[in-house]
Amino acid sequence: MAYKGxxxxxxxxxxxxxxxxxxxxxxxxxxxxxxxxxxxxxxxxVDSEHDFRGWTVERISDRRERTVFQYTDARPSVSHFGIVxxxxxxxxxxxxxxxxxxxxxxxxxxxxxxxxxxxxKFAAQLVVIDFLPSCRTNLTTxxxxxxxxxxxxLFFMQCSVRYQGNLNLSAExxxxxxxxxxxVIDVKVVTSKDVTQSTLNVxxxxxxxxxxxxxxxxxxxxxxxxxxxxxxPGYEYVWKSPLVLPVVATSVTQTTTSATxxxxxxxxxxxxxxxTPNKLxxxxxxEGARGTLLRAVSENWGKLLxxxxxxx
Length: 312
Known about the structure:
Layout: H1 6-19, E1 32-35, E2 40-45, E3 50-59, E4 65-70, E5 81-85, E6 91-96, E7 105-113, E8 119-137, E9 146-150, E10 154-164, E11 169-177, E12 183-190, E13 195-203, E14 210-217, E15 236-240, E16 243-247, H2 250-269, H3 286-307, E17 310-311
Parallel strand pairs: 1-8, 9-16
Antiparallel strand pairs: 2-6, 3-4, 3-7, 5-6, 7-8, 8-10, 10-13, 11-12, 11-14, 13-17, 14-15
């Protein structure tokens, strides 16, 4: 899939960097994260004290620094890359209309000091997501974005993503009550460069009236030396579950109906007797609900041990 409006983005980068040009600094490239098939662009702006000398890339796949473009070349040596220079104004944009996971790695802009002839390198990371993140769950909705579950019923949500790059990925599970403040359940910073999978298992109870979400992003690149981009790429993905509404199990409802019918019979036999039961069935009391939940946990304990509460 071609990167929409790609020419406009390159033009915007050129304008942005040239606006700050002339202040005696070199503006290096920034970290980027893209989905495989989309385009990418990195820019490098030199000041009056430096000369641009080229671009190199150190791919994840081979860990060898290769020249992509040098100033004496008419075009980049890697066929699917292009170079744009705003009429020699000092900003050099390396771009690709379409990327693959093989492009992921460290890109470096090479400049040279005009007085000392000292070469300088300004590096940034390109992360390529191999395929769009995906999530699945055993929750099925019958009307809109809501799903009803019996107290004690076990449900799961599982999400996965595959990417290549030198940046860590942050994966976050969050629970948002229907009438409450979102709560972060778990956050993991993943260093794997391949498939990342995360599973959340939940047992429905009276506090489960909520939606659950999974969010991934790439945090800022910390603990790096000067000349290396530290920014967080502007990429995130959020998956959201339907609203989970816990309900009393059918067997409890039948118990309530039977108890009400028994009370009505007792009243007919003794008009002075109470019209309703003096005591609710145990399944409807707080203790009864707790017992129902504990039984469900006991029945599903084997599954919980197999799945784990959160795995990644």
